[in-house]
Design brief:
The protein has 316 residues and is an alpha/beta fold. It has 11 helices and 10 strands.
Length: 316
């Protein structure tokens, strides 16, 4: 998404291969409403892509506090819980797609770490996200945010009540910012659009600096002159170039480009309301999940009305 002019050129660069079709899919399941949504989405998606599905359940030993909250179970008990939970997840997946090749994996350990560990050998990792408040997410942390921040493959985040798939009336939306990493997001979005015979909508946002940020010596005429340029034109150029690259592949997918003024997060969240899927790239850096994701992808994951795919640098 474009909030300021980008200097990196993608001219002459082809869309990278997504490797989506036929690649294995892993979904986390813990009996929660959010994980039920994740399994329902993953089962239908894996069947559509001709992929096998693995339902992973991880039992993380609770931490015993000085007040005695959290009784630590024995390791055999934890294995038993994980196996039973994974089996229920497999049954749920099969109820969504009878012909799906699906199997369970039960582990003892933290679910985020286990899913990230398996991300290097899979095409997609799918996780659920509960509808917590922003404060709860910040304080308690989230498996979905941690996995999206560290996984070595694209991660799909499905929120409670947001189990939907692309289709003729539900486009795949992808946010871009004119950079090379954005090409990976466009490539994956195109693969989803092809799989579901859905239109592709390429979106870029632009936001000029607020006049209040200009020095007092800048007069009103100057402020008006820079209010739209070059931010709007850069966003338009990035979208037009991405559209041309998709059309050059002659895939038959209907592709449109859209530029909108505003914060990138807000523009994508609004676009998610009538989308089957939103794809975002992430160039975030740092040790914390929010920084690793980048602020835009983090915000879209939290607020999107549709499932969100996060494509980190190097995950394709």
């Amino acid at each position: 998404m474009t909030s300021r002019p980008q200097t990196e050129s993608t001219a002459g660069h082809r869309l990278p291969s997504s490797g989506l079709v036929g690649a294995p899919v892993v979904v986390g399941f813990d009996d929660s409403a959010a994980s039920v949504a994740a399994v329902q989405w993953a089962a239908v998606e894996a069947a559509r892509l001709g992929s096998g599905l693995t339902v992973l359940s991880a039992s993380d030993p609770p931490i015993q506090t000085p007040l005695g909250v959290g009784v630590i179970r024995s390791v055999p008990d934890l294995w038993s819980v994980s196996r039973a939970t994974a089996a229920r997840g497999v049954d749920l997946a099969r109820s969504c797609s009878r012909e799906l090749a699906v199997g369970p994996v039960a582990v003892v350990g933290g679910p985020a770490g286990e899913l990230v560990a398996r991300s290097s050998e899979t095409g997609l990792v799918v996780v659920g996200r509960s509808r917590r408040s922003a404060l709860q997410t910040a304080v308690l942390g989230s498996v979905s945010f941690a996995v999206a921040a560290h996984a070595r493959c694209p991660v799909v985040v499905v929120s409670e009540g947001a189990v939907r798939h692309p289709g003729p009336s539900l486009p795949v939306v992808v946010g871009i910012d004119g950079s090379r990493p954005a090409l990976a997001a466009v490539s994956l979005a195109l693969a989803f659009a092809l799989a579901w015979q859905a239109p592709l909508r390429i979106v870029s946002a632009w936001q000029a600096p607020s006049p209040s940020s200009y020095p007092d010596t800048f007069d009103e005429a100057f402020s008006a002159a820079v209010s739209d340029q070059p931010w709007a034109s850069v966003a338009r150029a990035a979208v037009d170039q991405a559209v041309r690259q998709v059309e050059a592949g002659d895939t038959g997918v209907t592709v449109t480009g859209v530029t909108e003024p505003g914060r990138a997060e807000d523009v994508l969240v609004e676009a998610s309301r009538d989308a089957g899927l939103v794809v975002v790239g992430s160039r975030g850096q740092g040790g914390f999940a929010g920084l690793m994701l980048g602020s835009v992808s983090h915000g879209v994951m939290r607020r999107s009305a549709s499932p969100v795919v996060v494509v980190r640098r190097g995950s394709l």
